[in-house]
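pls read this protein.

:::
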Amino acid sequence: MRSIFFSCMALLIASVTEVSAQAFNGEHKYDGEHKNEAWGYFMGGNNVVTDGFGGLELSYRRHLTDRWYVGGDAQMQLGKKLYSVDAQGGYRLPVGFSDFYFDGKLMYNRYQRWKVDETVANISVTWETPYFNLRIGESYIHYKMLGFGYTEPLTFTFGTGVNIRPRWNSWNIGLFFRNYDDFYYENWNINWGLNFYTKVAKDMKLFAEFNVRPAGSMSQLASKYETSGKLGIKYVW
């Protein structure tokens, strides 16, 4: 009887330990097995400046250790004639059932339609829990056009999101609210959106996103500036 009791206790402890490990496994954390992550998506949408647009984005991340990671992204958008590249890296600090990510990014955008070059440097910290995330930071943004340069005041980065299921589930749906995307940071011009992912194979996920950007600053009643969507695949090895 005693042996049965201790066997049941050991099984219970093992189960709790497994769940705890899963709770630490956020969307960006190294899973202990796959050091490499690559993903790409097609995007498309409509805005008041260029009407319809579409393009392709490709990304890669390498987990150097359980805490440190580096990566880069590139995109090409037709319609907007926007070409972008960036390099980034960061550090993950686990705290309880959550993770803090301290990261930096250097980005270059070429707006070919208007012959504008944009250089961006961003540093941010993200708090990620199984259901909720919060991100804050600062961005340095410099434009160069027709031989003249302009630097914006430091741009405050913020964003938040919530999921209907814990992040370790094989599928999830979430809502987000932020003033940045993969290739821009824009003070008070907000993105509202819905995202989704589902596992389609052992090492592969399908993901999608839909967002709306109003033209005004923090105003739900402002006229629409842009709507867009993304559909892509993430692969790890």
